[in-house]
Amino acid sequence: MKAKGIAATVLSALLFGFTPIIASQTYTMGSNPETLTFYRNLFAVPMLFIVLCIQKDEMKLPKHAFKNLVIYGLLGCGVTTLTLYSAYQFVGVGTATTLHFLYPVFVALICFFVYKEHLGRQKVIALIIASVGVLFFIDPNGNVLASLPGIILAAGSGLTYAIYMVGMDKKGLKKLNPYKISFYIACVVSIAMLIYNIPTGHIVFALPPKALLYSFIVSLGTSFLGVVLLQVGIKHLSATTAAIFCLFEPVSSCICSWLLLHEAFPAAKIVGCLVILGAVAVLMTAKSGPDQNVRTKVRTADAKNR
């Protein structure tokens, strides 16, 4: 189960790392962050509905589950996407992505301070190494101090995504069908973006066919496959562990940009990739996580009581 969770989380990260390359192309065709956020979720609705029909799974959700899906879905797939895409307009993609990928740290801090979760030595070491690795992705030529709005948006996207991951883990949502979860989240975010568009008018509905095709590919890779795979990963791993494995995303993004867009892949980013992979290696060599240790202690105490 741990291997399945790792594979699903890493594949999700690779998809999330590849799709921004396609998403960036839609901006030159008249799209914007609000439009891409809307279509990214809207296009996923029919795909997820078809899967649920094939599975013959009932659409009904428990009341508490629906409430949590609305809250954490809006944060994780609505606010996070919108703020991160908006941050690219104020700061460089490298700086914004770096700040966003501090969310594993936010996840660990939320789990530690709010849920009193014991992180364990391996996770603490992996978080420190991963945080250092992320710093190598910062563009040294960028004027970070002069781009405060972008910094706030990018860091905020990391915080909302961390809340989403912890909510999926701690509120019992990971026990539900991941396709059903993704379906309701996509519906909620699509409706929320339409409501958001009433006073703002930022969504561009008349996009060229090529832009719509690219938006569909982004939706397929993120709101359909990426989100589902991430939920599978969280189901078999803890939120903190899954967040660390998600750090494959900036690595894949840099490699895909280098291969497909012929962007520069400097030595600093190569070192950052290696450091992040080292953090993942530290986590994978851990014999057992805190949650497993807790379960072992409970079983031992129960056996003694019997």
Features:
mainly alpha, about 300 residues
Commentary on this structure:
This protein is mostly helical and 306 residues long. It has helices spanning 2-27, 33-42, 44-55, 63-87, 93-100, 103-113, 121-135, 148-170, 178-200, 209-236, 239-245, 248-260, 267-284, 290-305. Helix 7 (121-135) packs antiparallel against helix 13 (267-284). The model is unreliable at 288-306 (pLDDT under 50).
In a few lines, what is going on in this structure?
The protein has 306 residues and is an all-alpha fold. Helices cover 77% and strands 0% of the residues. The chain crosses the membrane at residues 39-57, 69-91, 97-115, 122-138, 144-167, 179-199, 211-230, 242-261, 267-286.
Q: How would a crystallographer describe the biggest sheet?
A: none
* Arithmetic mean of pLDDT: 82
The number of helical elements comes to: 14
Which strand-content bin applies to the residues?
under 5%
First-to-last CA distance: 29 Å
Q: Unreliable stretches, pLDDT < 50, 5 or more residues?
A: 288-306
Q: What sort of overall outline do the alpha carbons produce when their principal axes are compared?
A: globular
Order of helices and strands: HHHHHHHHHHHHHH
What is the SS-derived class?
mainly alpha
Total beta-strand segments: 0
Question: Any idea what the radius of gyration is?
Answer: 19 Å
Considering DSSP H and I runs of 4 or more, what fraction of the residues is helical? over 70%
